[in-house]
Amino acid sequence: MRNMSDDHTRVQEFFTARAADWDRRFPDDGPAYAAAVADLGLREGDRVLDAGCGTGRALTPLRAAVGPSGVVLGVDLTPAMLQAAVRAGRDRDGQLLLADVAGLPLRSESLDAVFGAGLIAHLPHPAEDLRHLTRVVRPGGVLALFHPIGRAALAARQGRQITPDDLRAEHNLRPLLAGSGWRMTSYVDEDDRFLAVAVREG
Ligand SMILES: C[S@@+](CC[C@H](N)C(=O)[O-])C[C@H]1O[C@@H](n2cnc3c(N)ncnc32)[C@H](O)[C@@H]1O
Fold first, then answer.
1. Which of 39, 74, 94, 191 has the fewest CB atoms within 10 Å, counting from its CB?
2. What is the dihedral of CA 15, 20, 24, 25, to 10 degrees?
3. CA of 53 to the centre of ligand 1 (A)
4. Is 53 a pocket residue for ligand 1 (Cβ < 6 Å)?
5. Which pLDDT tens digit goes with each residue over 91-132?
6. Mean pLDDT score of the chain
7. What DSSP letter does each residue of 35-51 carry, written as one string?
Protein backbone atom coordinates (compact mmCIF):
# COMPACT_ATOMS: atom_id res chain seq x y z
CA MET A 1 0.00 0.00 0.00
CA ARG A 2 1.16 3.55 -0.77
CA ASN A 3 1.92 5.86 2.09
CA MET A 4 0.90 9.52 2.16
CA SER A 5 4.11 10.88 0.71
CA ASP A 6 3.99 8.42 -2.22
CA ASP A 7 0.47 9.62 -2.93
CA HIS A 8 1.55 13.23 -2.78
CA THR A 9 4.52 12.62 -5.06
CA ARG A 10 2.25 10.92 -7.58
CA VAL A 11 -0.19 13.86 -7.51
CA GLN A 12 2.64 16.37 -7.89
CA GLU A 13 4.18 14.48 -10.82
CA PHE A 14 0.80 14.20 -12.55
CA PHE A 15 -0.04 17.88 -12.23
CA THR A 16 3.48 19.22 -12.75
CA ALA A 17 3.39 17.64 -16.22
CA ARG A 18 0.07 19.39 -16.94
CA ALA A 19 0.49 22.75 -15.19
CA ALA A 20 1.79 24.86 -18.08
CA ASP A 21 -1.08 23.80 -20.37
CA TRP A 22 -3.84 23.51 -17.79
CA ASP A 23 -5.74 26.70 -18.65
CA ARG A 24 -5.25 26.26 -22.41
CA ARG A 25 -6.79 22.76 -22.26
CA PHE A 26 -10.00 24.08 -20.73
CA PRO A 27 -10.38 27.64 -22.04
CA ASP A 28 -14.19 27.83 -21.82
CA ASP A 29 -14.72 26.80 -18.21
CA GLY A 30 -14.76 30.30 -16.69
CA PRO A 31 -18.56 30.82 -16.68
CA ALA A 32 -19.11 27.39 -15.09
CA TYR A 33 -16.78 28.29 -12.21
CA ALA A 34 -18.49 31.66 -11.76
CA ALA A 35 -21.94 30.02 -11.73
CA ALA A 36 -20.86 27.40 -9.17
CA VAL A 37 -19.37 30.05 -6.88
CA ALA A 38 -22.57 32.11 -7.22
CA ASP A 39 -24.56 29.11 -5.96
CA LEU A 40 -22.63 29.00 -2.67
CA GLY A 41 -24.33 32.06 -1.23
CA LEU A 42 -21.06 33.65 -0.11
CA ARG A 43 -21.33 37.08 1.48
CA GLU A 44 -19.19 40.17 1.56
CA GLY A 45 -16.41 39.64 4.10
CA ASP A 46 -16.55 35.82 4.11
CA ARG A 47 -13.38 33.76 4.43
CA VAL A 48 -13.13 31.11 1.73
CA LEU A 49 -10.60 28.44 0.79
CA ASP A 50 -10.08 27.10 -2.74
CA ALA A 51 -8.83 23.62 -1.85
CA GLY A 52 -6.61 22.18 -4.57
CA CYS A 53 -6.80 25.53 -6.35
CA GLY A 54 -4.42 24.50 -9.14
CA THR A 55 -3.90 27.44 -11.50
CA GLY A 56 -6.47 29.44 -9.53
CA ARG A 57 -9.37 29.36 -11.94
CA ALA A 58 -11.88 29.87 -9.10
CA LEU A 59 -10.01 32.63 -7.32
CA THR A 60 -11.42 35.54 -9.33
CA PRO A 61 -15.10 34.58 -8.85
CA LEU A 62 -14.41 33.79 -5.18
CA ARG A 63 -12.88 37.24 -4.68
CA ALA A 64 -15.82 38.84 -6.47
CA ALA A 65 -18.18 37.00 -4.10
CA VAL A 66 -16.49 37.99 -0.83
CA GLY A 67 -15.30 41.44 -1.87
CA PRO A 68 -12.20 43.31 -0.74
CA SER A 69 -12.98 42.76 2.94
CA GLY A 70 -13.16 38.98 2.53
CA VAL A 71 -10.36 36.42 2.68
CA VAL A 72 -9.56 34.19 -0.30
CA LEU A 73 -6.96 31.49 0.15
CA GLY A 74 -5.82 29.07 -2.55
CA VAL A 75 -4.04 25.94 -1.39
CA ASP A 76 -2.35 23.36 -3.58
CA LEU A 77 0.16 20.56 -3.24
CA THR A 78 1.82 21.08 -6.63
CA PRO A 79 4.26 24.00 -6.90
CA ALA A 80 4.00 24.10 -10.71
CA MET A 81 0.24 24.66 -10.51
CA LEU A 82 0.71 27.54 -8.08
CA GLN A 83 3.44 29.00 -10.30
CA ALA A 84 1.00 28.92 -13.22
CA ALA A 85 -1.56 30.70 -11.00
CA VAL A 86 0.97 33.46 -10.33
CA ARG A 87 1.85 33.76 -14.04
CA ALA A 88 -1.87 34.20 -14.74
CA GLY A 89 -1.99 37.00 -12.16
CA ARG A 90 -4.45 35.15 -9.95
CA ASP A 91 -2.44 35.82 -6.83
CA ARG A 92 -4.05 39.27 -7.04
CA ASP A 93 -7.36 37.66 -6.07
CA GLY A 94 -6.22 35.35 -3.30
CA GLN A 95 -3.30 34.36 -1.15
CA LEU A 96 -1.59 31.20 -2.44
CA LEU A 97 -0.23 28.53 -0.16
CA LEU A 98 1.70 25.33 -0.90
CA ALA A 99 0.14 22.77 1.44
CA ASP A 100 -1.81 19.55 1.74
CA VAL A 101 -5.53 20.16 2.28
CA ALA A 102 -5.32 17.52 4.98
CA GLY A 103 -2.71 19.49 6.92
CA LEU A 104 -3.73 23.10 6.67
CA PRO A 105 -1.90 25.58 8.89
CA LEU A 106 -5.17 27.31 9.75
CA ARG A 107 -6.99 27.87 13.00
CA SER A 108 -9.99 25.66 13.74
CA GLU A 109 -13.30 27.02 12.44
CA SER A 110 -11.56 29.97 10.78
CA LEU A 111 -13.32 29.64 7.39
CA ASP A 112 -16.88 30.17 6.14
CA ALA A 113 -16.55 28.00 3.06
CA VAL A 114 -14.38 25.62 1.07
CA PHE A 115 -14.56 25.28 -2.71
CA GLY A 116 -12.89 22.16 -4.12
CA ALA A 117 -12.87 21.77 -7.91
CA GLY A 118 -11.59 18.49 -9.31
CA LEU A 119 -10.10 17.69 -5.94
CA ILE A 120 -11.81 14.76 -4.31
CA ALA A 121 -10.76 12.11 -6.84
CA HIS A 122 -7.13 12.92 -6.05
CA LEU A 123 -7.34 12.62 -2.28
CA PRO A 124 -5.63 9.47 -1.00
CA HIS A 125 -7.89 9.12 2.04
CA PRO A 126 -11.08 11.02 1.19
CA ALA A 127 -12.91 10.48 4.50
CA GLU A 128 -9.91 11.49 6.58
CA ASP A 129 -9.06 14.41 4.29
CA LEU A 130 -12.63 15.74 4.30
CA ARG A 131 -12.58 15.57 8.08
CA HIS A 132 -9.51 17.83 8.12
CA LEU A 133 -11.52 20.34 6.09
CA THR A 134 -14.30 20.06 8.66
CA ARG A 135 -11.88 21.25 11.31
CA VAL A 136 -11.10 24.55 9.59
CA VAL A 137 -14.71 25.48 8.71
CA ARG A 138 -17.13 26.98 11.23
CA PRO A 139 -20.35 25.10 12.02
CA GLY A 140 -22.89 26.00 9.35
CA GLY A 141 -20.11 26.75 6.86
CA VAL A 142 -20.20 25.29 3.37
CA LEU A 143 -18.23 22.79 1.32
CA ALA A 144 -18.69 22.70 -2.46
CA LEU A 145 -17.27 19.86 -4.55
CA PHE A 146 -17.35 20.98 -8.14
CA HIS A 147 -16.35 19.87 -11.60
CA PRO A 148 -17.10 21.84 -14.79
CA ILE A 149 -18.47 18.70 -16.46
CA GLY A 150 -20.55 15.87 -15.02
CA ARG A 151 -19.36 12.39 -14.15
CA ALA A 152 -20.56 10.72 -17.36
CA ALA A 153 -19.03 13.36 -19.61
CA LEU A 154 -15.75 13.19 -17.69
CA ALA A 155 -15.65 9.41 -17.91
CA ALA A 156 -16.27 9.60 -21.66
CA ARG A 157 -13.48 12.17 -22.06
CA GLN A 158 -11.14 9.86 -20.17
CA GLY A 159 -12.27 6.77 -22.09
CA ARG A 160 -13.60 4.86 -19.09
CA GLN A 161 -16.92 3.67 -17.69
CA ILE A 162 -18.48 4.94 -14.48
CA THR A 163 -18.57 2.14 -11.94
CA PRO A 164 -20.96 1.91 -8.96
CA ASP A 165 -18.08 2.46 -6.55
CA ASP A 166 -17.38 5.92 -8.07
CA LEU A 167 -16.66 8.18 -5.11
CA ARG A 168 -18.75 11.03 -6.53
CA ALA A 169 -21.88 8.93 -7.11
CA GLU A 170 -24.58 10.33 -4.87
CA HIS A 171 -25.04 7.04 -3.00
CA ASN A 172 -21.31 7.04 -2.12
CA LEU A 173 -20.71 10.75 -1.62
CA ARG A 174 -23.59 11.40 0.79
CA PRO A 175 -22.42 8.85 3.42
CA LEU A 176 -18.78 9.77 2.86
CA LEU A 177 -19.56 13.40 3.64
CA ALA A 178 -21.82 12.49 6.57
CA GLY A 179 -19.06 10.37 8.10
CA SER A 180 -16.68 13.32 7.84
CA GLY A 181 -18.90 15.90 9.49
CA TRP A 182 -20.70 17.29 6.42
CA ARG A 183 -24.44 17.13 5.60
CA MET A 184 -25.02 17.13 1.86
CA THR A 185 -27.70 19.69 0.97
CA SER A 186 -27.67 19.53 -2.83
CA TYR A 187 -26.30 17.30 -5.57
CA VAL A 188 -26.26 17.99 -9.30
CA ASP A 189 -24.60 15.71 -11.85
CA GLU A 190 -25.40 16.92 -15.36
CA ASP A 191 -23.36 16.91 -18.57
CA ASP A 192 -22.12 20.46 -18.04
CA ARG A 193 -21.79 20.51 -14.27
CA PHE A 194 -21.08 18.45 -11.18
CA LEU A 195 -21.80 20.28 -7.93
CA ALA A 196 -22.32 18.76 -4.50
CA VAL A 197 -22.86 21.20 -1.64
CA ALA A 198 -22.65 20.25 2.03
CA VAL A 199 -22.96 22.08 5.32
CA ARG A 200 -20.60 21.65 8.22
CA GLU A 201 -22.46 20.00 11.10
CA GLY A 202 -22.39 21.74 14.44
C1 LIG B 1 -7.89 18.45 -11.24
S2 LIG B 1 -6.83 19.66 -10.53
C3 LIG B 1 -7.98 20.98 -10.31
C4 LIG B 1 -7.32 22.31 -10.14
C5 LIG B 1 -8.30 23.49 -9.97
N6 LIG B 1 -9.10 23.33 -8.79
C7 LIG B 1 -9.18 23.64 -11.19
O8 LIG B 1 -10.39 23.39 -11.07
O9 LIG B 1 -8.66 23.98 -12.26
C10 LIG B 1 -6.58 19.07 -8.87
C11 LIG B 1 -5.61 19.90 -8.05
O12 LIG B 1 -5.62 19.43 -6.71
C13 LIG B 1 -4.31 19.44 -6.20
N14 LIG B 1 -4.27 18.49 -5.09
C15 LIG B 1 -4.45 17.15 -5.13
N16 LIG B 1 -4.36 16.63 -3.90
C17 LIG B 1 -4.14 17.66 -3.05
C18 LIG B 1 -3.94 17.76 -1.65
N19 LIG B 1 -3.98 16.67 -0.88
N20 LIG B 1 -3.75 18.98 -1.10
C21 LIG B 1 -3.70 20.10 -1.90
N22 LIG B 1 -3.87 20.05 -3.24
C23 LIG B 1 -4.08 18.86 -3.81
C24 LIG B 1 -3.45 19.08 -7.39
O25 LIG B 1 -2.11 19.49 -7.21
C26 LIG B 1 -4.17 19.81 -8.51
O27 LIG B 1 -3.65 21.11 -8.70
1. 191
2. -30
3. 6
4. yes
5. 999 999 999 999 999 999 999 999 999 999 999 999 999 999
6. 95
7. HHHHTTT--TT-EEEEE
